[in-house]
Structure formats: structure tokens, C-alpha cells
Amino acid sequence: MVVRTLQNIDYEVKRENLYETVAEKLEDSILSGNTQVGERLPSEQALAESFGVSRNVMRESLKLLKERGLIDSRMGGGSYITKPESSDLVNVVNRIILMDNIDYEQVFQMRGILESAACSLAAVKCTQQQVARLEMMNRQLREAAGNQEKSMGIDVDFHVEIARLSGNPLLEMFVEVMAHPLRRGIAAGYNIDDGNRDAFMRHNNIIQALSEHDPHKAHAAAMDHISHSLDNIRERERMRMQ
Question: PANTHER family of this UniProt entry (predicted)?
Fold first, then answer.
């Protein structure tokens, strides 16, 4: 039986690591562009017959695809093609940071690379309406002074929004991904006296550079902000060790 939904797939599989081989072939077909997000896969039985494998093997293959974020299984409703979420990458990056003992200074170094690039690109592309939205977000940050959790959330959203304005979806995704391991560091920055006011002021410097459409000034403002944020965290760590 050949399943029509996956017509361009090679159903010949080797017997060793069978479920992985089947999963790889299904993944290749999904990523080839022959299918669409939201499209329902053929039934487990139909796929098993097409590959010439047992339903148990097919079930393990689909389970592997689900772990990779490529399908979503619905109770009694079959499997549907989906795409990996940034949260999947967040989990992977967090595990790498923890297992490799990557410290917050190295994480901030990566943040500097990503966010300064995002600011440079956004300075060229952003509109005054988009700049006005950043100004609104920064006012909300100032009004949230004293509320660490709210301030931290607005701060992260501010930087992700700039990455979105860069026009590069990969850059936006990685800025958002790196914001998660940085949350503890950002929170530490808001524990410092005038941490909120300092962030507000440096955000304003970035906004000014964006409004002037000056990529070099935007890059410098982003690096200055990140450098001072790192200084705040170092100070927090120094105080904690006393």
C-alpha cells in the first residue's frame, strides 16, 4: 500500500535501527516541502504497511518525530505535521549551558553578539511607528520599577521586539532563546539600586539610535547596555559573596 500524502518518499528501509530509519525518512519528506504544517499524516496502520514494518516500529518512529517537534499527536485524531518551537531550542541550549558549566559572562558575550547585530539591522529597517512601540514598552518598564518580575518580562520583550524589527527570523529566534538563560542575570540586575532606571536610560539610547536610523550608533548603544548589565550582575555577585 502506497500512501498518497507522502508520494515522494522512499519506503525501502534497512532492518537495523528500524524505527530510526523510518523516522529519518519521514522527517526528510516533511522537511522537503512536499507537506504543509497542519496536514494530517496517514494512519499509523497505513504508514506501517507502506514501510513494511510493524505498528510497534511505526509507533516508535512517530514518537521520535514528536520529540523532534515535527508532528503533534492528538488523542483519537491521528498525527499532524507541525514545526519545532523556539521553546524546543531553549531547552537544548539550557541543558548545554548547565552541562558544560558555561558561565553568565560567556552567555552575555553571546548576547552582545546577537543583540548588537539586531540593533544594527533594525536601525536600517524600522519605521517611526515601530520606534514609538519601543518607546511605549520602555515607559512600561519605568512604571514597573519595584516589580522585579514585571520589569524583567518587559525588558526581555523589548530586546526580542528589536530582534523582530531586524527582519531576520533566525536572529529573532536566537535572541529569544538566549533571553531564557539570561533571566536570572536580568533579575540580578534589577536587584541593584537604580537597576530599573539604568535599563530605562540605556534603552532610550538604543531607541534614539534607531529613530536616527544609525546602525553604528545602535550597535554601540546595544553593547553599552549589555556591558553595564553585566557590570550590575558582577556587582550583585560581589555583594552576595560578602
Answer: TRANSCRIPTIONAL REGULATOR, GNTR FAMILY, UXU OPERON TRANSCRIPTIONAL REGULATOR
Separation between Cα atoms, residue 148 and residue 184, nearest integer Å: 11
Per the domain annotation, does 174 fall within a domain? yes
Which residue type is seen at 207?
I
pLDDT, tens only, 175-193? 988 887 666 555 555 555 5
Question: Percentage of residues in the chain with pLDDT exceeding 70?
Answer: 86
Do 176 and 230 reside in the same domain of the chain? yes
Domain count, the chain: 2
Helices (H) and strands (E) in the chain, counts: 11, 2
Candidates 30, 23, 31, 28; CA nearest to 5 is 30
Domain membership of residue 10 (yes or no) is no
Q: Is the dihedral of CA 113, 128, 167, 149 positive or negative?
A: positive
| d(C-alpha 242, C-alpha 237), whole Å | 9
pLDDT tens figures, 80-126: 999 888 777 888 888 888 889 888 888 889 999 999 999 999 999 99
One domain, residues 124 and 74 = no
The DSSP 8-state label assigned to residue 81 in this structure reads E
Host H or E run for residue 79: strand 78-81
61 contacts 19 by C-beta, under 8 angstroms = yes
The residues facing 71 across adjacent strands are 81
Residues 136, 111, single domain; the answer is yes
Identify the domain boundary among 26, 53, 81: 81
CA gyration radius, the chain: 23
- Of 63, 81, 99, which one is at a domain's C-terminal end? 81
Domain at 173, CATH number: 1.20.120.530
